[in-house]
Design a protein that fits this description.
This protein is of the alpha/beta class. The protein is about 30% helix and about 30% strand. A 6-stranded mixed sheet has the order 2-1-3-4-6-5, sandwiched between helices.
Length: about 160
C-alpha cells in the first residue's frame, strides 16, 4: 500500500480499505483527516459523511459508525479527543487513528488514552509499501500504524 503524500493523513488505498472494512452502505463517517483521500473513498462507496466540515462544526449532530483521524489531534489532547469521539460513536462504532510509523511507544499511549475514555482496542493495522519478494528476505518499508478502537455495544464495558 502506498505511503501518504507529504501533509496528508493517508493514501487513497488506505482510505478505501477503512471505508469498506469498517462501514456499511448507510453508515455515517466523520472525516477528521488531512487530504481528500477519505472523502473520495466515502463518495465512491456511497457512504454518508460530515467530511472535512466536521473539524469546524464540532463533528456534527448525528452519531457515526466510523471516525477517522490523523494523530496528534488538537481537540483537548488525547483525553478530550477520545471522550468526544466516544460520544459521537454509535455502539459498536470505531475510531481509526492513523500514526506515522516510528515511535514504538506512541501506539500504546494512544490505546491507553482511548481505554480511559471507554473505548476498546480492536485492531492494529501496519501499512507498508514494499511487498515481500518470493525467495528474498527483505524488510518491509512500514509507513503507517492504524489503531482501530471501538465503542462497546450496550453490553460491553469498553475495557475501562
Amino acid at each position: 500500500m502506498p505511503a501518504p503524500q507529504q501533509g496528508e493523513t493517508m493514501s487513497h488505498a488506505m482510505a478505501v480499505r477503512l471505508v469498506h472494512n469498517l462501514t456499511h452502505q448507510s453508515n455515517l463517517i466523520i472525516d477528521l483527516t488531512a487530504g481528500p483521500q477519505l472523502a473520495r473513498a466515502i463518495i465512491a462507496a456511497r457512504r454518508r459523511s460530515h467530511l472535512q466540515t466536521a473539524r469546524s462544526t464540532g463533528w456534527g449532530r448525528e452519531a457515526a459508525t466510523l471516525i477517522v483521524t490523523g494523530w496528534p489531534f488538537d481537540a483537548g489532547g488525547p483525553a478530550g479527543f477520545f471522550a468526544c469521539g466516544r460520544a459521537k460513536l454509535l455502539p459498536g462504532g470505531c475510531v481509526a487513528v492513523l500514526l506515522a510509523h516510528g515511535d514504538p511507544v506512541l501506539p500504546v499511549d494512544v490505546v491507553v488514552a482511548a481505554k480511559r475514555a471507554g473505548l476498546s482496542y480492536l485492531q492494529h493495522i501496519v501499512a507498508a509499501d514494499q511487498p515481500p519478494t518470493h525467495g528474498y528476505r527483505a524488510q518491509l518499508d512500514i509507513h503507517t500504524d492504524v489503531l482501530v478502537l471501538a465503542r462497546p455495544t450496550a453490553g460491553g464495558d469498553g475495557g475501562a
